[in-house]
Structure formats: structure tokens, C-alpha cells
User: Fold this.
Amino acid sequence: MPGNDRTYFEHRAEIEAQRAREATEARVARVHDQLAQAYLGKLAVVPSTGAGTA
Assistant:
């Protein structure tokens, strides 16, 4: 997915959230949730492609 950071971060956040839901240990779930939140945080600072451009 080179060249599209938003897509990458969205995908990684989804994967980590899924892993958190599927984890059988609370510690593991917490770490995956933290990773998902970190990827979502990256989305807040990565500009959307095409959004707001004329």
C-alpha cells in the first residue's frame, strides 16, 4: 500500500481492533487495542487525498 498512508493506517487499525476482539488474554487484547488507537491517531494527522481540494 505504498503511497496511501490513510488506507494503510485504516487497514492496520481494523486489523488490530479485530485482533483485540479475538484475543483470549486481557493483556494481549489491551496491547492490540492500543495499537489500533495509535493507528487511528495517525489518521488524524494524515491529510485526506482529494478532500477540500479544488
In short: The radius of gyration is 13 Å. Residues 6 and 49 are 8 Å apart (CA to CA). The chain has a mean pLDDT of 88. The chain has one domain: 5-45.
